[in-house]
Amino acid sequence: MRRVSVWARMLKLERTTIVEDVSFDDAANAIVVHVRPNKHAEGRCGECGRRASWYDRGDGRRRWRALDLGPLRAYLEAEAPRVQCPDHGVIVAQVPWARHAAGFTYAFEDMVSWLAAHCSKSAVQDLMRIAWRSVGRVVTRVVADAQREHDRFANLARIGIDEISYKRRQYYLTVVVDHDTGRLIWAAPGRSEATLRKFFDELGEERSYRITVVTADAADWIRRVVKERCPAAEICLDPFHIVSWATDALDEVRRLVWNDARFMGQKALAKELKDARFALWKNPEDLSERQKGRLALIARTNAPLYRAYLLKEKLRQVFQLPPDQAMVLLDNWIAWAQRSRLKPFQELARKIRSHRKGIENSLRRDLSNAIVESANTKIRLLTRVAFGFHSPMALIALAMLSLGGCCPALPHD
Ligand SMILES: [Zn+2]
Questions:
Q1: Which of 46, 221, 347, 409 is the most exposed place for a label (fewest CB within 10 A)?
Q2: CA of residue 93 to ligand 1 center, whole Å
């Protein structure tokens, strides 16, 4: 085997890259491999890859960081001329060993991305000897490439939409998950109708019409956009959300009663109510003996609060029944809540009635938003890892590597 082809293999270079020479840079303590594109690969636009006419030498020779060779850093060095593309104007020519505008080779960037999806932040930085901010840019490029090659929207039928907040609710992402593959397929900064419309714009009209089911929480902006862009889709509202609304309503009643008791100077009652907080929240089967006692006391002494507790419990039980029975009981529940003389539950009854269809769809399809919620939990962890990245797009790319099936293979695969 010729010496140059050993170098080409070691650095995972394509046949379109010609190795001219290898030298050692003492100052940088690094191996420098001098390369050039072959006839077929040279003179192409860095953006679109089409043939373009020569413009000038650009900034002359430059280097790209390649995979380390043993303990040594390695660089490719080549001319980086500019060409004139009919579409992209004067632009640095494409090279077969690196992505446009990247300072690293393909193999190096794939390795960094794989590590970012599998290892801790400090492991990636220390092992690859690269700044975390650069990792953000690397994963953004790698994911963009993967998404150009694979159609993540193919055969999309059942999706879940949700929002997540990070950095103390300063920033939001809207995320879309495929229920059938369990993969994160799209995310964008923001939470608004305009944000979600971007997803359907990318999906295109024809494929939007083929969406059959959308699970979401009760956010109006999601419902509005879904109705507008995929009129054929059933919107499913996760029962888990409904139960959490009932827990909120119960807490509101408890607070009202507690405030009254304090205002009237009933110290003992106020304390009792405060202590009962967890007993009220918990499912009855999980109550300790002490908590059961507290609940019994409330049943004897505080009718409105006990009524609120029963309403919450009843609603939770509704969603454990088969769909037909559940819907009958849900309607009974709405009527009961409306008569309860408890304002938070009367409001809740109205809210549930307006979402009745979505709840029924969800029960009949037996489709919860659990997949979406779990993706959300993982993305929220990643927001901490992504701290130090410059742009939310790098956070999204990191999420796509781990949860969207965009992680590249290791260079030795
Ligand atoms: Zn071009």
A1: 409
A2: 9
Residue of 412, 402, 375, 384 lying closest to 132 (CA atoms): 384
Using the mean position of ligand 1's atoms as its centre, give its distance from the Cα of residue 135 in Å.
26
The span from the CA of 68 to the CA of 86, in Å, is 38
How far does residue 108's CA lie from ligand 1's centre (Å)? 25
Q: What is the pLDDT of residues 55-110, one digit of tens each?
A: 999 999 999 999 999 999 999 999 999 999 999 999 999 999 999 999 999 999 99
- For residue 190, report the distance from its CA to the centre of ligand 1, in Å: 31
Distance from residue 41's CA to the centre of ligand 1 (Å): 14
Q: Please state, in angstroms and rounded to a whole number, the distance separating the CA atoms of residues 389 and 355.
A: 39
* Residue 151, pLDDT score: 86
What predicted TM-score, i.e. pTM, was given to this entire model? Answer: 0.81
Domain spans of the chain, in order of start: 1-103, 239-365
> Side by side, which strands form the sheet with 61-69?
17-25, 30-37, 72-79, 61-69
Q: In sequence order, what are the residues at sequence separation of 6 or more whose Cβ sits closer than 8 angstroms to the Cβ of residue 307?
A: 340, 342
What's the CA-to-centroid distance between 46 and ligand 1, angstroms? 7
Å from CA of 50 to ligand 1 middle: 6
- Phi first, then psi: give them for residue 62, nearest 5 degrees: -145, 175
Report the pLDDT value the prediction gives residue 1, as an integer from 0 to 100: 54
Classify the C-alpha dihedral 273-275-280-285 as positive or negative.
negative
Expressed in angstroms and rounded, the spacing between residue 25 Cα and the centre of ligand 1 is 34
CA of 86 to the centre of ligand 1 (A): 7
